[in-house]
């Protein structure tokens, strides 16, 4: 886990999707621990599936005084994402993508995106999303990656910093709980086995 300068990262501004007001990122962990899910894109089918998976933890997080917050790199697809009910927590937009840069969330090149997007992890997650009726689109910045940041109350320390290596990478629900030192009743969705029947459609 790379060292994160929470003071620097915390100064980044995010725009609330509810109020459209800007807040400093550090305000999200000021009064409670927080799980920050940084999406690649709001229209990304795999990101939407990941959001529904992480949202399974929301009742347990809330019961333990932990906030669950989503962050996207732009507003493309935000309205549809919210209307779809994919995420159970407040959603913010990092319009300048500065927190993405400060957290080391890479940007793909066109040449590196194609193999990453066609990789087994992405195909498996996409087929799971399709099986659950979750669709996506290709609007917005296709080259941005995401990840997760879990911060202790008051910014005391980083509990978890996860950077996607490929668009299908995500933290297991139990790893999120373990980082927070809590137990949860949520059961992770079963990642499908990728075969010609599911992955070539």
Describe this structure in words.
The protein is of the alpha/beta class. It has nine helices and seven strands. It has helices at residues 6-10, 45-55, 58-63, 78-83, 98-102, 110-117, 120-131, 173-180, 196-199, and strands at 13-16, 22-24, 34-38, 67-72, 91-93, 147-151, 158-163. It has a seven-stranded mixed β-sheet. 38% of the residues are buried. The model is unreliable at 191-201 (pLDDT under 50).
Helix-strand layout with pairing:
Blueprint: H1 6-10, E1 13-16, E2 22-24, E3 34-38, H2 45-55, H3 58-63, E4 67-72, H4 78-83, E5 91-93, H5 98-102, H6 110-117, H7 120-131, E6 147-151, E7 158-163, H8 173-180, H9 196-199
Parallel strand pairs: 3-4, 4-5
Antiparallel strand pairs: 1-2, 1-5, 3-6, 6-7
Helix pairs in contact: 2-7
Give the oligomeric state. single chain
Q: How much helical structure, as a percent, in the residues?
A: 25-40%
| Widest beta sheet: strand line-up | 2-1-5-4-3-6-7
Q: What's the number of helices?
A: 9
Shape: globular
Mean pLDDT: 82
């Amino acid at each position: 886990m790379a060292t994160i300068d929470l003071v620097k990262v915390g100064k980044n501004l995010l725009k609330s999707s509810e109020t459209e007001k800007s807040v400093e990122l550090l305000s999200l962990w000021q009064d409670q621990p927080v799980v920050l899910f940084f999406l690649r894109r709001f229209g990304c089918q795999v990101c939407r599936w990941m959001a529904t998976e992480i949202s399974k933890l929301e009742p347990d997080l809330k019961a333990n005084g932990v906030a669950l917050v989503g962050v996207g790199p732009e507003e493309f697809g935000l309205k549809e994402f919210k209307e779809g009910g994919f995420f159970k927590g407040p959603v913010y937009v990092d319009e300048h993508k500065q927190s993405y840069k400060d957290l080391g969330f890479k940007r793909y090149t066109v040449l590196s995106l194609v193999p990453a997007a066609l990789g087994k992890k992405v195909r498996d997650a996409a087929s799971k999303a399709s099986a659950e009726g979750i669709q996506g689109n290709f609007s917005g910045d296709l080259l941005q990656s995401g990840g997760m940041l879990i911060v202790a109350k008051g910014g005391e320390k980083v509990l978890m910093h996860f950077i996607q290596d490929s668009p299908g990478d995500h933290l297991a629900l139990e790893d999120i709980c373990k980082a927070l030192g809590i137990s949860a009743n949520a059961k992770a969705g079963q990642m499908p086995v990728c075969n010609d029947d599911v992955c070539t459609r």
